[in-house]
Design a protein that fits this description.
Elements lengths: L4 H29 L3 H26 L3 H22 L10 H19 L2 H6 L6 H7 L1
Amino acid sequence: MNRPVTVVLGICALAIVLGLKFLNEVLLSVHLYGDNTAFVVGRIFGIVAVYAIPVFLLWKAWRGRNWARIVLAILVAINLFIVMSLARTVPVLLGVAPLWAVVLVMVEVLAITLLFAANRFYSKAGEHEAPHQRRADD
């Protein structure tokens, strides 16, 4: 089954935002703890481990797994509430100006909306596989 344009755009937008957030975390770690190389390396390994979870979810959403798009939507909703509540009170949010954080969250919300516009793709993605293959792949 061909992947709809809304899925391609949604996953690409989420991947770009995720990459920007990852880069921000790494650069912030280097800036704040640059004199302690061992700590920076350990922190970067931790950041990679944490960011592996949304990358896995993006991969599964790309493959048509409905549960992955639902989990991504929940994570984006949590991030939306956090950014909106902190944007008014914190002058600098995790090294990113609050306006930039709000823009990134809005892109995430748009991307999730695009994913949910492709309901037919997500409902049909697993129909052509044998039941034992669906369970093993998820």
